[in-house]
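Q: What would this complex look like in 3D?
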Amino acid sequence: MRRRYRGTGRQRRSNCPIACTLDLVGDRWSLLIVRDLLLGKTRFDEFLASEEGIATNILSSRLKGLENLGFVVRKGDDRDGRRVQYSLTRSGKSLGKLVRGIADWGLRNLPQTTLAPGGGK
Amino acid sequence: MRRRYRGTGRQRRSNCPIACTLDLVGDRWSLLIVRDLLLGKTRFDEFLASEEGIATNILSSRLKGLENLGFVVRKGDDRDGRRVQYSLTRSGKSLGKLVRGIADWGLRNLPQTTLAPGGGK
DNA sequence: ATTTTTGATTGCAAAGTGCAACTAAAGCCG
DNA sequence: CGGCTTTAGTTGCACTTTGCAATCAAAAAT
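A: Here is my prediction, written as structure tokens for the whole assembly.
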């Protein structure tokens, strides 16, 4: 008796583009990671340092999710074997439009919100 | 020892417009209800009938949340005392832009997604 | 008066989130 | 080499949220 909760690769609730999009990235963290990637961050530590304060387990799980969805690629750093470089795929970059749309709405409708430095790209 | 989980009216994680927007409507259901309201639905039963199949308790709680945020108003039907009319406030209507942006991204990037009839408005 | 409709609430189990502690591999430094 | 540090995680546990099914209460319909 399987219950269908959200997450990577689960069954769709409908064919509505809104519902499907929310099924993929409709949580509190995924798009913030995408935001950071768009801003040029590439490392685990850098995402961790963002002011929202994501926990390491959540970050790890969201990065895996985004990777499974084909939005992010993970590759080791040649010069430093400890480091990992996360980056957006072409598909992941398409999320930029979505992220900017959300940022735009927030800026217009939520007082005291401001773009992070470098976010105006 | 209060832990700050998400939800209506809690403290912001940052002043990032993306984070703040996600704090308000970054869950699996709220924007689908907004979608339905934009499509002209007004009643509890109508939201319930949407193909995604929201549960009554979740619907109830999301409607309350959207009301608390000032996006939705609830008023009783004069002709039928059982019925309740939910509708978008001016502020709630501004979410239309956000919803359309998400729908747009979904349509372009997720195969097999199609707009509900009447959704092309 | 009984049944149906409408808009919910309640109880419970399962899944998700957040925090703190811990780990493991690789690099640094004397 | 050997111990310390950095980087990228994993694990355990408590708490919260979600989803389902059952139930409820008021109003309307019959």
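A: To summarize the key features: Residues 90-109 of chain B form the longest helix (20 residues). The two ends of chain B are 48 Å apart (CA to CA).
Q: Very helpful, thank you.
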